[in-house]
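step=encode ok
step=design start
structure_in=
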């Protein structure tokens, strides 16, 4: 089954943005000796932009949180960040205006590739922004298998930052579980508790409470989970962050995965253990998508417009002001 998260990067859009300049997608270059390739030194963010319900306003969710996380990932790996938040949003606006089409949302990938330097000396990184269209449809529920590959410990390869190297292990896990017929893999942490899936965090419903592991369990510090926590509270649901044992996952009433691109995708089964499809997570998902479509705002989940109500491009300055 093809899921939204896997489909987007099979596209070849016309344009990308390199250090603020529009470049034809096929002309973006990187040298084979760049540390981005020789030592997997790149950090990135995936941001999602949504058309509102009437299709005249296009907004990006939580760009400041993504910018802050990108800076934190870069700081940990000693990668200098040579652009401000304002320039970051302006870049999304520039590329978004080139690639946006009516009726399709956009997923932006903003990647800092280390292009110069050697083992921390003279490090320079290029900011490359790509964007891929996303169909507005409900993804099918997914089937997961628990992988034998594990999330690295914080002292080995920190998982709460978003660096490309983290996805090497995730790729092994995805390949392993897809061979067994599952859509994606659950990764356990080094203690054998639930960490996350390859590109999203895990939520379960246990005794009427929505539960997700904290980043110290080996998952990314997810912006979507933060947003879902707010939506849960707004719906009057209890939301907890605590470790989840494997057996709790398998015997949970409901299960879902949360991420910018996955939104809140329901899980049908993990290793043959099946979950309720019409419970609290389905409600949460519906409300989250309504917020994304601008039906109702929630403080703490900013939607920054790139195309305004008059169908005009929002100027970079006012886009930044709106965040
Ligand atoms: N974990 C991993 C490994 C991810 O790649 C993602 C997607 N960015 C997430 C969790 C979810 O994070 P977010 O909600 O910030 O997109």
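sequence_out=
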């Amino acid at each position: 089954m093809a899921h939204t998260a896997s489909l987007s990067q099979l596209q070849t859009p016309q344009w990308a943005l390199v250090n603020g300049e529009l470049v034809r997608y096929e002309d973006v270059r990187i040298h084979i000796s760049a540390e981005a390739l020789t030592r997997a030194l790149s950090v990135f963010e995936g941001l999602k932009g949504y058309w509102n319900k009437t299709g005249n306003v296009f907004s990006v969710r939580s760009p400041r949180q993504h910018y802050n996380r990108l800076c934190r990932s870069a700081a940990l790996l000693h990668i200098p960040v040579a652009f401000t938040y304002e320039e970051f949003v302006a870049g999304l606006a520039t590329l978004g205006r080139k690639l946006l089409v009516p009726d399709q949302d956009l997923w932006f990938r903003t990647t800092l590739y280390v292009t110069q330097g050697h083992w921390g000396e003279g490090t320079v990184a290029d900011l490359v922004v790509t964007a891929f269209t996303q169909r507005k449809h409900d993804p099918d529920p997914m089937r997961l298998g628990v992988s034998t590959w594990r999330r690295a410990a914080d002292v080995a390869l920190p998982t709460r930052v978003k660096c490309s190297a983290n996805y090497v292990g995730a790729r092994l896990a995805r390949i392993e579980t897809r061979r067994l017929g599952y859509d994606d893999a659950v990764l356990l942490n080094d203690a054998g508790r639930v960490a996350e899936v390859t590109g999203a965090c895990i939520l379960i419903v246990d005794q009427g409470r929505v539960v997700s592991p904290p980043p110290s369990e080996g998952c990314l510090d997810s912006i979507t989970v933060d947003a879902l926590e707010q939506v849960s509270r707004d719906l009057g649901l209890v939301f907890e962050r605590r470790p989840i044992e494997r057996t709790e996952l398998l015997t949970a009433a409901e299960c879902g995965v949360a991420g910018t691109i996955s939104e809140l995708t329901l899980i049908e089964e993990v290793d043959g253990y099946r979950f309720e499809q019409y419970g609290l997570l389905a409600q949460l998902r519906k409300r989250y998508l309504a917020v994304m479509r601008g039906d109702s705002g929630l403080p703490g989940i900013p939607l920054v417009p790139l195309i305004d109500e008059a169908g005009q491009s929002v100027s970079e300055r006012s886009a930044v002001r709106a965040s």
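step=design ok
step=annotate ok -> Residues 46, 196, 199-201, 219-220, 222-224, 259-260 surround 4'-deoxy-4'-aminopyridoxal-5'-phosphate (CB under 6 Å).
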